[in-house]
Specification:
This protein is 29% helix and 32% strand. The protein has 228 residues and is an alpha/beta fold. Helix 2 packs parallel to helix 3 (61-67) and helix 5 (101-116) crosses helix 6. It is globular, with a radius of gyration of 18 Å.
């Protein structure tokens, strides 16, 4: 995968370059220190994805994402409050600084998964006995990791999907799905309430309670509009 690094801070770009060098199948093809330079290099170099800071002088990262056509966008930022805006402009992921190797690897897996999913990334194919059911993921409220499967409910039926939660998140982030913990993905418009007890829990419209991890809480709160 060909990456373009975009950040007005040289130290931040250097860190991302070091992390990318530790991942297989990844090549950094260029670096940009401004939004305008990012757009120029995206046209010239045709990267597969941008690691894009939001808070930059002049044209910021959100403006760059809106103007781009083609490359995937993974935001890298110190500001969790922009998560909702980021996903509204089609971001594949939203990484808080300092970016870890694990989170970067997961974000790039999402990009690969979405590119391989074709034009209908919301379409799931799941086994149900002797049947193969076709499910619209946009009708599902919550996906939960269970060893090598993902478990979810659809039309009062529990179904298993043989796909990693990371890959599923990559496919479904554009449809309002939020990673609330290492083991759970929820649809934002299925969230009925936020319970502050025990560090944070989202309550879905059907009453299901899904704990939010401390690491995910800032981005989830921002996406739900709780920090405005």
């Amino acid at each position: 995968m060909r990456l373009l690094l975009v950040d007005d801070e040289p130290i931040a770009r250097a860190r991302l370059r070091r992390l990318a060098a530790r991942l297989g199948g990844v090549e950094v093809v260029g670096e940009a220190a401004s939004g305008a330079e990012a757009l120029r290099l995206a046209r010239e170099l045709a990267p597969d994805a941008l690691l894009l800071d939001i808070d930059m002088p002049g044209l910021d990262g959100l403006g760059v994402a809106e103007a781009l056509e083609g490359p995937a966008v993974i935001f890298t930022t110190a500001h969790p409050q922009h998560a909702l805006e980021a996903f509204e402009v089609g971001a594949h992921d939203y990484l808080l600084k300092p970016v870890s190797l694990e989170r970067l690897a997961r974000a790039l897996e999402k990009v690969r998964a979405r590119r391989g999913a074709g034009e209908e990334p919301w379409r799931l194919v799941v086994g149900d006995g002797s049947l193969r059911r076709f499910v619209d993921a946009r009708e599902v409220s919550c996906f939960v990791a269970d060893q090598k499967y993902v478990v979810f409910r659809h039309e009062d039926r529990e179904l298993l999907l043989r796909e990693s939660l990371d890959a599923l998140e990559g496919r479904l982030a554009p449809y309002g799905f939020l990673r609330v913990s290492r083991g759970a993905l929820v649809r934002r418009d299925a969230v009925d309430a936020w319970d502050t007890a025990d560090g944070g829990t989202v309550v879905l419209a059907d009453g299901t309670r899904v704990p939010v991890s401390r690491r995910a809480a800032p981005a989830v709160r921002a996406a739900l509009g709780l920090d405005r």
